[in-house]
Amino acid sequence: MTNGLPPLKELKEWKALEAHYEKLRGTHLRDLFAADAKRGEKLALEAAGIYFDYSKHRVTAETINRLCDLAEAAGLREKIEDMFTGEKINLTEGRAVLHTALRAPKNATVVVDGENVIPHVHAVLEKMEEFAEKVRGGHWKGHTGKTIKNIVNIGIGGSDLGPVMAYEALKHYSQRGLVFRFVSNVDGADFAEAVLDLDPAETLFIVASKTFTTQETMTNAETARDWALRALKDKAAIAKHFVAVSTNAAKVSAFGIDTDNMFGFWDWVGGRYSMFSAIGLSTMIAIGPKYFREMLAGAHEMDEHYRNAAFEENIPALMGLLGLWYNNFFGAQTIAVLPYEQYLKRFPAYLQQMTMESNGKRVTVDGRAADYQTSQVYWGEPGTNGQHSFYQLIHQGTKLIACDFIAFSKTHHKLGRHHDLLMANVFAQAEALAFGKTAEELKTEGVKDWLIPHKTFEGNRPSTTMLLDELTPAALGRLVALYEHSVFTQGMIWQIDPFDQWGVELGKVLAGRIAPELESAAEPELKHDSSTNALIRRYRASAGR
Ligand code: G6Q
Fold this sequence. Notes:
545 residues, alpha/beta, 21 helices, 13 strands, 11% strand, binds glucose-6-phosphate
């Protein structure tokens, strides 16, 4: 398998960036801002409802041009078209990658294996809408005739992180009479706590699993079925209390769920790219079809921007390129995602999967070991909380950490000074990181000599500030699509397959091998390494086996 490109580091555009880095590495943001009074306005873009200020990055106009040249040389333009038009760009799995089709309008055409997939997408959306309205309207009754009030989504990874994140992000738009819980971990505590105060007669489980074979999800789903049937005492109750979101109708039906109550999707929707598919059923029940459609429209707007804008004016392309600039030239290892919006508290966790599962690869699509860094580590917490915790390291530690600040001009809660203070903090942090505080400034403030090194902030710490109007469903759609395309930009330049996840598949196999050794009554013959063998024996002994 080959992508037809020379190794990345042999591209002349890459070499040009290496040389450019050597010239720019010592330059301070203070000097870049001093040299151009309009830098803050010039190095900013506005598209698809996002004001994207990248002026506090260690770049010049030349850097941006050279990064965009690299994207061109890497064939990014053609690869974007390949993705949007249903080419099988997930090379190691031989699949198309069409999360963008999930938010395309009804009159669009995207052909996979000779068939337009858009009518299928909209048929599922309509089925979801019908179901969501029934639940929201109190018309979906449980087995005993009680109205369903609690919705429990059972899923893991891509079948959990998007739904939880979107529910939390859009809680303001949710139907408050309904209770939403999300169970993912195979640790029984997750299920037990989620249903502790719920009445089975009023509870609906959404079993969300693309394959319907994932150990954690199937274990939780079986426990849920037992929990419901213990109270409802009739197998017929499953039809009223369980629905499935899956691509595997045979397994859904074997579990006992009527396939009429199954919402499908397709192998061209990757798990971590699935929150806009039927995997978003819990989101649609929470916020309703109208807002769900607005979220899709927001994502679509970003899709169009990514597909059509020149790289210099293309927010996702630039975001990906800036990340690559620090990762591959400055040797930075991580990116902090810092939303100044409490409702986005699960956004960094959601992005961790999207970014690291996608681009955490060490070989290129043609099987060569990459001789350069691929995905950064993504992490973060909402501001201002993080300021009282790990920001110290970002300001004064020895590591270079580029930050993504995400903020909204409007709040859902106009409470006194809260929002002004929140915004004052986000602007102040980005400013302090970039400009720091010099020894001279401290001296004029009368700080004692011996304290000056401790109180000095060298600055030159890069960040992007994304300013949006308000956290609406459309804004969330735009933000998610922005990061998806930024990840794609990087993955294509690194010549890897961002859409497979062989590391996750390995984990699924390994636990399956050890479980019977923990559970068997007879002493198993252990053939692991001595550490694993000893741990298994200790566990068996404490469990009385
Ligand atoms: C996502 C990954 C992974 C997946 C889960 C759940 O891209 O493949 O996180 O979503 O392992 O898989 P199922 O939906 O098949 O249960």
